[in-house]
Amino acid sequence: MIFDLPLSYLGLQLLIGLQNGAFYALLSLGLAVIFGMLNVINFAHGAQYMMGAFLTWMLLDWVGVSYWWSLLLVPLALGAFGILIERALLRWLYDLDHLYGLLLTFGLVLIIEGVFVESFGASGLPYNKPDLLAGAQRIPLGALTGNEKDVMMMPVYRLWIIGVSLAICLATWFGIEKTRLGSYLRAATENPMLVRAFGINVPVMIMLTYAFGTALAGFTGVLAAGLQAVTPHMGANLIIVVFAVVVIGGMGSIMGSVLTGFALGLVEAFVRIAYPEASNIVIFVIMIVVLLVRPAGLFGREA
Amino acid sequence: MLKRLALAAMVGGLAAHPAAAAEISDDAVRIGVLTDMAAVYADLSGKGSVIAAEMAVEDFGGKALGKPVTVISADHQNKADIAAAKAREWIDTQGVDMITDLVTSSVALAVSEVGREKNRVTMVVGAATSRLTGKDCSPVGFHWAYDTYALANGTGTAVVKNGGDSWFFITADYAFGHSLESDVSKIVEANGGKVLGAVRHPFPSSDFASFLLQAQASGAKIIGLANAGADTINAIKQASEFGIVAGGQNLAGLLMFVTDIHSLGLKSAQGLYMTTGWYWDLNDETRKWAARFEEKAGNKPTMVQVGVYSSVLNYLKAVEQAGTDEATAVSTTLKSMQIDDVFAKGGKVQPNGRMAHDMYLAQVKSPAESKGAWDYLNIARTIPGDEAFRDPAASGCPLVN
Amino acid sequence: MSLFDGGYTIRRFALSPRRLALWILTAAVLASLPFVVYPVFLMKAMCFMLFACAFNLMLGFAGLLSFGHAAFFGTASYVVAHALKVWGLTPELAVALSVLAAAFLGLLFGLVAIRRQGIYFAMITLALSQMIFFFALQAPFTGGEDGIQGVTRQPLFGVIDISNNLTLYFVVLVVFLFGLFVVYRTVHSPFGQILKAIRESEPRAISLGYRVDHYKLTAFVISAALSGLAGGTKALIVQVASLTDIGWQMSGEVILMTLLGGMGTVFGPAVGAVVVVTLQNYLNAFGSLVSIVIGVIFVICVLLFRRGIVGEIQARIGR
């Protein structure tokens, strides 16, 4: 049934799937980095994403700071928030079962969301994206179909999300897998004592890793502000799905979570056409199947 | 506490024999505002509803039949089980005589059921479902401000008459969405329009791109949004990305409140049609009331908040007239009264509990037209009460013969 | 905890005078409580206490964190509501049926999830429960987001009228005590000892010849069945079955109660449940303040009092 649809329509649906996948990829990337380095499952990731969106709104509405500056300032602010959380709370839990990290951050979600509902109400705030990113881009498909009239009208903002997310994901992967700093990080998670013996400050590295993860969540929040209403509950609905993405990809696998994120966005796009009611559940079905076949996820190593 | 329980038992005994009930049970009239304090409907009802109820008591003089009137409130978190339990607790232990607001359909249905079982008046203001005065109607239950039928009728009829005769629905996949879609479909078809299809989206959704594209591909002139709150807001916001309105299709928000417009911003919302039961900028009286409310609450009142005011005020009037706060007697009185206050003029309570009053078809202003915050709507048409609401005889309510 | 200390000696209730006095006092308190506190609130609290204790069988004694227990709790409440309202069954049959349904669901969940550990176990149970949630949202007989409402309390065994809250209280009290007794017996049995051994060191238990998966699965089914008992009873009390009982937030809530009360203690989770339910009830008028307060308490607990309320008290007393 799907293949009866015109290419311009199908192509657009897939591009949108890719854009949703970009959100999954960015968020699960942050989760994977944090889990890989700290062994903490950051339940507060959704709340930090929501904070990013709110901060973007505040910057424009209260101080008049533009979207472009927000892209820089919001991740910095959330990184600082991450450092605060890590220093004050998380670091006391490193020697324990990592379920405690999950539980602590679960408590944080209750607090953060409660505070935002109390201060801003629950019905949402409007954010107007910059004019440069408004409107739609014509993508001609004549070369593919032979019909000059076949064009896709893809919103510029969504193209921007795909592009910038890809860039960030690749840069992160490169930074962790291919640079010297990244190799220290990986080594520190394997054997912190040894790395410390080399004169590297492991606690600071772990702190910065958590800050980087929350900064990524904040960055995704900035992107989301231009796409949907900014509400205190926007992260709560997303985080459960992103968990599933991380598990399917393999906990802690950087490349795994990125690829899985994009791929699941595409799968979801198909389901939204064929059986839209199930589009929220399909990822969980995939997760169960994957875990039955490959217990450590698609890209994870069996522990 | 033991004494209070004994008292409650006694009251229960009295209530079972309406003839024996005279005057005011346990020497006070207690009104419960059961609402959403912190979740998605908190802004359109919530604390504002409580303030409105208190204003009504104040305007009535604080006493009914010489006994003090008190207002208590609680958060039902939009959960039917919590709401039903709270309502029972109020009735059993606090002697609450009337419960109002009840935003969210599932909550309203649950509490209306409790009211029927325990013989207490329920006045639903915030919820939309027309089942409350249809097959689930109650002899002591009232539906005060609006319902899905009136919304469908108001927006649906007007849009079809303006030439929007082919429809496609983006529907939230839950009972409320389904009933809104089916109500509007009937109206559209009765007016000679056509329904081309519908897509059901999971609730809640944050990205509507895929569903909007399906609606766009349908070629329908009107895309009806049979959802509410954040879902509607996101759908409208994202529709502009795909040039849906520029391409000649129009959106119709089927359940929208002024607070939704506030969340959307006029830039995204301008030109939308919506049906509402009240607007603060209708006339001098509404403006004056709204200013008074704003002083206490910090923002302009919504249709639900002023509806709560009206429900409390008229309940108290009915108690005075009936000479008792026994639910059946008060309900009978309410059904014989004419409703005249800042919310409704010449409103009538139908036998199924529906308060029929004038509704308004409004269009959202453009940013240039608006003079500032909360100046959002132009009233396009006043829909007279008997035309706006369903004919009680056709409602399916067993109370109507 | 060593595997061999008292593995097969089941402690008997020795009724010393002191113990007897304690039991009589407890019985007196339980019997008089509904005259002081609103009985429906007490009954709801008992349901959550039982739910938390049942959940803790998995977390505290088998060392497995389930993030999907709401599926059992919620399914049972739907079964009771449907059986009472549509089939017109008597309450005891409806509740029995709901326990069976929950146990069966527990078996299915267990078969899929039991071989996994730690975070993977949590995630699989979460995913499975999301599917049950989806089913409850979509199926025609669950009433979507309205739930099943207006459930009438049919007479118990067809003869005892339980429409009165006070009568129902004593019925629920019996159910509740029965549930807690099952939890207690499960923990203090050879079976419970083996579970603890598996929690302490799974490889060692395997090397001793125990069929580890078998034990874990049995524990999961018992836990699911008791969660079902709690959920089914709740539907009878509040006369509504709705999505609240089956969503992932409910699974999160029961984790919260358990940790707060003290996982690994038999009845600690019940104390945690009372604290959470009471906070929710009495801070209700303050809206989102409830979640902030609970969140703060929870964070403090994770950081400073990981043994939970009861666990800390036991540690102080020096047991």
In words, what does this structure look like?
- The complex is a heterotrimer of chains A (303), B (401) and C (319).
- Chain A has helices spanning 7-38, 45-63, 67-88, 99-120, 142-145, 156-178, 180-190, 192-197, 202-225, 234-249, 254-274, 282-293, and strands at residues 136-140, 151-155.
- Chain A has a domain at 20-231.
- Chain A is built from 12 helices and 2 strands; from the N terminus they run H-H-H-H-E-H-E-H-H-H-H-H-H-H.
- Chain A is 70% helix and 3% strand.
- Chain B is α/β, with parallel strands linked by helices and 401 residues long.
- In chain B, 42% of the residues lie in helices and 19% in strands.
- Chain B has 14 helices and 16 strands.
- In chain B, the strands form 4 sheets. A 6-stranded mixed beta sheet of chain B has the order 2-3-1-4-5-6, with helices on both faces. In chain B, strands 8-7-9-10 form a 4-stranded parallel beta sheet, sandwiched between helices.
- In chain B, strand 9 (222-226), helix 8 and strand 10 form a beta-alpha-beta unit.
- In chain B, helix 1 (2-15) packs across helix 3 and helix 12 crosses helix 13 (327-336).
- Chain C has a domain at 37-248.
- The longest helix of chain C has 27 residues, at 212-238.
- The two termini of chain C are 13 Å apart.
